[in-house]
Amino acid sequence: MVTAVSAEREAVEQGILDWGAAQGSPGGSGVGERSEVRSLHLPGGYEMRRIAVSVRADAGREASVFDAVAVGAGPAAAAAGAATALTAAAVAGGQDAGYGLVVSAGIGGGFLTDCGSAAAGDVHDGLDVGGVAGSATGAAGGAGSGRPVERSRLCMGGAVVSRKIVAADLGAQTADHGFLPVTELGFGTSEHHPPGRLAYAVAAATGGVLGDVLTVTTATGTADRARELTERHPEAAAEGMEGFGVAEAATAHGVPVVELRTVSNAVGPRDRGSWGIAGALEGLRGVFRGGAGVLVGWG
Question: What are 19-37's pLDDT values in tens digits?
Fold first, then answer.
């Protein structure tokens, strides 16, 4: 798991520990769990947290191991940090040799369309995220329904799982044709495609929306910019600053990748008073509480 900042990494870690604890609860898959968390230090000064979860009933089974590292903001920092972790694992040998899956995780902007005051930004830190995200479940899909939430029902605190990871501003601005992605210029790539079955399963397990996640180097702060992005990317559900960089590193190492975001603000005019960072972090914890089992099954 690759995050930008330590607060996101801690939310991921706590969500995984919650999932591990649930394995021994009534209805879980075991009779208890053992969780071990330790810090590993990577080249470049990165601190990685290794979370190992074992179910006591499965004494002969290897622990499920998750590594979480905070690498800094932006696609360049994300690519450098993810590549460092991937390379360190590739050369380690033994039980630490390589990863089965890379996850870009964090909070970010959501393309909100149908949440009343939440879409307008009337949500603040400290609000119980369940009260907001609850409107995105039920008949529209969500955790326990066997299908993702409809994209039009994404709300503050809600989760987005990437169908595509898109570098939204990697390309050239032209006078005649507007923005041209790097692929239309004849070099590079501007999209990465997570495994479809994995993305769908995580969205269904967590009550998340399945949609495109845009990576930008400048966060959107105006209505005009938000309109431009949605016109070019009509399936966009969230905006972040790290996903494409993580995906570039994962792809270079031949490892599948998926991006998970929870919504801390509406994509559009910049209004810090409306941000719901605490709720989004709690939502991120919930995503890993609900989705860790799917990630283990894939990785």
Answer: 988 875 555 555 446 788 9
pLDDT tens per residue across span 126-170: 333 344 334 333 334 455 557 777 877 888 999 999 999 999 988
Q: Give the pLDDT of residue 200.
A: 94
CA dihedral 72, 75, 81, 83 (to 10 degrees): 170
User: Which residues touch 193 (CB under 8 Å, ≥6 apart)?
Assistant: 163, 164, 165
Mean pLDDT of the chain: 83
Beta-carbon-side half-sphere exposure of residue 168 (alpha carbons within 13 Å): 31
Residue in 286, 110, 134, 285 with CA at minimum distance from that of residue 211:
110
Give the separation between CA 288 and CA 162, rounded to whole angstroms.
15
3 state DSSP class of 178: strand
- The DSSP string of 225-292 is HHHHHHHH-TTEEEEESSHHHHHHHHHHTT--EEEEEEEEEESSS--GGG--HHHHHHHHHHHHHHHH
Task: Report the relative pairing of strands 33-41 and 47-55 from DSSP bridges.
Answer: antiparallel
pTM of the model: 0.84
> What CA–CA distance (Å, rounded) separates 226 from 211?
16
CA distance 213 to 247: 12
Region 33-56 average pLDDT: 87
- State the sign of the Cα–Cα–Cα–Cα dihedral 118, 70, 164, 218: positive
pLDDT of the residue at 97: 66
284: tokens are 């991120």
Tokens standing for 103? 């996850």
- Whether the CA torsion 224, 225, 229, 234 is positive or negative: it is negative
The CATH class for the domain spanning 2-298 reads alpha beta
SS3 167: strand
CB 15 within 8 A of CB 286: yes
